[in-house]
Write a structure and sequence with these properties.
It is a single chain. It is built from 29 helices and 38 strands. The chain folds into six domains: 97 residues; 196 residues, P-loop containing nucleotide triphosphate hydrolases (Rossmann fold), CATH 3.40.50; 149 residues, no CATH class; 122 residues; 109 residues, YVTN repeat-like/Quinoprotein amine dehydrogenase (Methylamine Dehydrogenase, Chain H, 7 Propeller), CATH 2.130.10; 79 residues, Beta Barrel (Thrombin, subunit H), CATH 2.40.10.480. It is 46% helix and 19% strand. It is an alpha+beta fold. The strands form ten sheets. The chain has a five-stranded parallel beta sheet with strand order 2-3-4-1-5, with helices on both faces. The protein has a four-stranded antiparallel beta sheet with strand order 11-38-37-36. A four-stranded antiparallel beta sheet has the order 12-13-14-15, with no helix packed on it.
Length: 1044
């Protein structure tokens, strides 16, 4: 520390009688009244003063969060009042304004606030005064000079006008998007330029502006000229200046801070572009925590700083605390509120914008009083996340804004809202452009998928005129266009439906015709069969006639022989013989004729039989098709009924969550479970799980006063959980420094180890043989506990906190990693030696179950793979997540790796040798993943997030089903662990509560009936299940009988 800094700090010697008021403003700038707390910018105010004295104008330019406003309020203005501008003296009227959404009106307001008569006047009188002053300002380019002359106090005073956040003028031009806005902005700039070029009234002007808006000044040439002549680019604070900004306010506020915490703060700030507001906010939170939790004469130390989440998470945690205090409706209003106060700039980064309270209320669809209730949560003293400050009464025309843009870059929930708002605005802009083009005949109506996306957007966002006019004023035209597209598409779909009905009728007619043809075929078959019988009869008759003819021929032959032998006798009877001969010939011809007829009848019969057989084959084919169609229809009916019953089960489970009567709540949940199980529903359905869990929880709470699966032994955050290999015991530790042993059967606990000095422990492991417990934390050593004797050993080696411990499979050695020294060490239970000094600072690290492969991830999203045999890097992946990684875990079979990042996304990779193939991701969580665990049976995977959710996925069906979400806890979850049998999931929360959730609905359902005293009656069944579903008793042993 240089002598100048020492002199400054030596003036403040804290005493015990000082009130410990928080000396850090948080996100907002320092005010003039807090000048005594402003450190680190000594000497810079003098340079600004020189520019102001020479040119009566200066522009202070710097990045967002660089301290421009604070330098003005606590640097420049005090030295003006001190008379350090010798030519002007110390008699000053200081006016402060911001362009906002009404530049000239805001300037008029700042002028009038210097008039005591205005301050004490009525609202009606104030409105008249504002209009008059605004008229004067608009009357000519000398309007500002004329207006300040009206101040009664200004006759002999210098006027100093501070235009804070001048970049709002360019946002105003962009937002309004019309010539009037551009003319208003030009008039505003002319008022400032003419004021410093005249000599009648001593006016001095300073403006602050973000450096990324400097290019927008070029649209006002005169303004560009004077900025080039007189500006001050505010530099980034050096490390010594940052140290002074930390230690100075602490000394003034009556506190003490340890050197190691100062060093940690300086390291954490680094080159963060939001370094000043984020650091001030973290210090404000640390101070408040220290005041509430300090020991006697204890200085502000690392434990207080870590408790608020450090610089990287303090702001996000603070905002989440305010958000968690809201009920469901207020959270919806909160989302609309912050979306109205943010937007994405041209560089795709979040930019704040101000809005009137009445406009936000109209967008959110609630009363102004309801909106104020939400705003007050975020501007309470000690929070100040929204402006104006808490001491300003909110009214309909109050301007609401985010206190600093760093909130948009750090609060993950707000980042998501900004993205959603941007997407919503883009959809509305597309819709508005399409409506305009359709109106002039240059495009057609929208159809799916564009139409469906727009309709989904309309249902989800519920846009209003007030919201829409910020992006395009022609909201009604866009609304009518969308409705026209919807009507046209529905009409087209109805036409298609009508056509399909006609085709169905035609198909039915074809089926009827085929049926009739089938009947006719049967008739022909019967007719053919009858004809076949007739043909067989005719063939038999012909055969008889043929036999008869042959018999007659034989007889004729005998008679001819007799005639020959009796020639002489024949002569006498020649006439008679001739007649006999002729008759015989006639009989022979008749027999031959009958034979031919019989043969023809036989051929005809064979043809008829072949035709009949073909018709019978066709009939059999039609019968088989009909049977197949019948079976298919039955399967479809069964499937439809199955899906219906599963849907009813899910609906019943959801309804049970909103029922306060615990018997009915449990009956609905259990019957839903039974239906889901009977009809093949998803075993891990999140609706079924929630129904059973909350029903059992509420029933036990009401009857026995038991908090289901909720155990308290720690008084602060539980950071690590470790199961013993036997599955009978497990161990927990965390921020309170206690190491506790729990019985896995009855969940009774005992304190295994309590250090004399409180340390935060980050990780803990039990050796595979169950003999050793190792613990690592903020202390630069590893605590080793012999579980048989409870003797402890401390193993030194690391130079900073130990963040990760990993046993090798043989239980004889374990690895330790420290994020501060970036060192991996190998340890037995006495000694430690360095194994690898990494170039990267790994935020997550894990070891495969066989101990051969180590995987590590850093803050840039890079994943490195190391071979533990020789500690060579075998592979590196840089484009998997592109976001900081905080959790990595191998599956029990080493075939899968899971990686969790800052945005709440878990990436799943397949492990093939030394290659990792990341092909899937698990969405659903919106904040940093703290922990990932695979169940010992390798069937489940659990993830825990800073947003306070724990999700359970079925490993084999991650792509086909949603996870079970555990929400029954008060704060974010830091650690999770499966029981040895995979039946339960343990979770350690921020407030020291240990949660235990069954992983299977069967475990909760198996004994739920013993807690119930009745069944549903028939009225309840018809209402919640359905009057077309037969009534059954849900619980056979429940007390009451169902009603009629």
């Amino acid at each position: 520390m240089n002598p100048k800094e020492s002199d400054i700090l030596d003036k403040y010697n804290p005493g015990s009688d000082l009130d410990l008021l928080n000396p850090f403003p948080g996100l907002r700038p320092f005010s003039f009244e807090e000048s005594h707390l402003f450190f680190g910018r000594e000497g810079q105010s003098d340079e600004v003063l020189i520019n102001l004295a020479q040119h009566r104008f200066t522009a202070v330019i710097g990045a967002s969060g660089s301290g421009k406003s604070s330098l003005m309020y606590c640097g420049l203005i005090p030295i003006l009042y001190g008379g350090f501008m010798t030519e002007a003296g110390s008699d000053w009227n200081v006016l402060v304004t911001r362009p906002g959404i009404a530049p000239i009106e805001n300037l008029a307001e700042s002028i009038l606030h210097k008039d005591q008569a205005y301050i004490t006047s009525t609202e009606e009188e104030k409105t008249i005064d504002r209009r008059m002053t605004s008229t004067i300002l608009r009357s000519s380019s000398m309007g500002f000079v004329d207006a300040v002359k009206q101040l009664s106090q200004s006759s002999s005073k210098n006027i100093f006008l501070l235009v804070d956040q001048f970049e709002e003028l360019f946002r105003y031009i962009k937002t309004e998007r019309d010539d009037d806005a551009l003319n208003e902005a030009a008039a505003y700039v002319n008022l400032l330029i003419k004021s410093i070029s005249q000599s009648e009234v001593p006016i001095y002007i300073a403006l602050t502006m973000r450096s990324d808006f400097i290019g927008d000044c070029s649209q006002f040439p005169e303004l560009t000229h004077i900025i080039n002549k007189s500006h001050y680019l505010i530099p980034q604070m050096t490390r010594d200046q940052q140290r002074l900004a930390i230690e100075g306010p602490v000394a003034v506020g009556g506190g003490k801070i340890t050197k190691r915490l100062v060093q940690q703060l300086l390291n954490d700030v680094g080159n963060n572009p939001d370094q000043l507001p984020v650091m001030q906010h973290a210090l404000m939170r640390t101070w408040n925590y220290w005041v509430a939790n300090r020991d006697m004469d204890e200085p502000i130390d690392l434990r207080h700083y870590i408790a608020i989440g450090k610089i990287h998470e303090a702001l996000s945690q603070h905002a989440n605390e305010a958000y968690s205090e809201l009920d469901k409706k207020e959270k919806e209003v909160c989302e609309v509120l912050f979306k109205a106060l943010t937007e994405k700039g041209a560089d795709n980064h979040g930019v704040r914008r101000s809005a009137k309270l009445e406009d936000i209320a109209e967008i959110s669809g609630v009363s102004q009083a309801e909106l104020i209730e939400v705003i007050e949560k975020f501007r309470e003293p000690g929070r100040s996340l929204l402006m104006p400050p808490s001491n300003v009464t909110l009214k309909a025309n109050s301007i609401i804004e985010i206190s600093h843009e760093s909130l948009m870059r750090i609060w993950q929930r707000l980042k998501n809202w900004v993205d959603e708002e941007s997407e919503s605005a883009q959809m509305y802009k597309r819709l508005s452009n399409a409506a305009e083009m359709y109106q002039i005949g240059k495009t057609g109506l929208w159809r799916p998928p564009d139409l469906q996306l727009a309709l989904n957007w309309q249902i989800k966002q519920k846009p209003t005129m007030t919201w829409a006019k910020r992006y395009n004023p022609y909201f009604e035209r866009a609304k009518v266009f969308l409705e026209t597209c919807k009507t046209a598409y529905e009409s087209e779909e109805k036409s298609k439906e009508l056509l399909q009905r006609r085709m169905l009728q035609r198909t039915k007619m074809v089926a009827i015709i085929l049926g009739v043809a089938f009947i006719i075929a049967i008739i022909f078959f019967v007719f053919g069969w009858i004809k076949k019988i007739d043909a067989d009869n005719q063939r038999e008759i012909a055969e008889i006639n043929r036999v008869e003819a042959e018999r007659n021929a034989d007889l004729a032959e005998e008679r001819r022989k007799e005639a020959v032998l009796q020639t002489e006798r024949a002569i006498e009877s020649a006439d008679e013989a001739e007649r006999q001969r002729i008759r015989a010939e006639l009989n022979a011809d008749s027999a031959l004729y009958q034979k031919n007829i019989a043969e023809k009848q036989t051929d005809f019969a064979i043809q008829q039989r072949t035709l009949a057989m073909e018709r019978e084959r066709i009939a059999d084919s039609l019968r088989i098709v009909a049977d197949e169609q019948s079976l298919l229809a039955k399967d479809e009916r069964d499937k439809a009924n199955q899906l219906r019953m599963i849907s009813i089960a899910q609906s019943m489970a959801v309804k049970s969550l909103n029922i306060s009567e615990t018997d009915l709540k449990a009956l609905l949940a259990y019957q839903a479970y039974l239906f889901n199980k009977e009809y093949g529903g998803n075993v891990y359905d999140n609706y079924i799980y929630d129904g059973l869990y909350y029903a059992k929880r509420d029933r036990l709470k009401e009857n026995q006063g038991i908090d289901l699966n909720r155990y308290r032994g720690h008084r602060d955050m539980i950071r690590a959980i470790a199961y013993a290999p036997n599955g009978k015991d497990f161990y927990t530790t965390g921020s309170d420094g206690k190491i506790m042993q729990w019985n896995a059967n009855d969940y009774k606990f005992k304190t295994l180890y309590q250090p004399a000095q409180s340390y935060i422990y980050n990780d803990m492991k039990v050796s595979p043989d169950g003999k050793w417990l190792i613990v690592g934390g903020d202390a630069p050593y590893i605590l080793v506990i012999n579980l048989a004797t409870l003797n402890t050993i401390k193993i030194d080696g690391h130079t900073g906190p130990v963040t990760k411990l990993m046993f090798l499979p043989n239980s004889e050695y374990f690895l330790s990693y420290g994020i501060q020294d970036s060192t991996l060490r190998i340890n037995d239970f006495v000694n430690s030696s360095e194994l690898k000094k990494f170039n990267d600072r790994y935020t997550a690290i894990t070891l495969s179950k066989d101990g051969k492969t180590m995987v590590a991830g850093n803050e840039k999203g890079k994943i490195d793979i190391w071979n533990t045999n020789n500690m060579d890097m075998v592979e590196s992946y840089e484009n998997i997540t592109n976001r900081p990684i905080y959790a990595i875990e191998f599956s029990p079979d080493n075939k899968t790796i899971a990686v969790g990042n800052e945005d709440g996304v878990v990436y799943i990779g397949d492990v093939v040798g030394s290659d990792f193939f990341f092909t899937r991701s698990l969405p659903g969580q919106k904040s940093r993943i703290n922990a990932i665990r695979f169940s010992p049976d390798n069937k489940l995977i659990a993830t825990a997030s800073l947003e306070g959710t724990v999700q359970l996925w079925v490993f084999s069906r991650m792509d086909k089903m949603l996870p079970v979400a555990f929400k029954d806890h008060d704060d974010y979850v830091w650690s999770i662990e499966f029981s040895a049998d995979s039946d339960y999931l343990l979770a350690g929360t921020k407030n020291g509560v240990l949660k235990l959730w069954p992983t299977k609905p069967d475990l909760m359902a198996q004994d739920i009936c013993k807690y119930l005293i009745r069944n549903m009656d028939k009225t309840e069944w018809d209402r919640y299940v359905g009057d077309d579903i037969n009534y059954i008793k849900t619980c056979d042993k429940a007390g009451a009988n169902p009603g009629k």
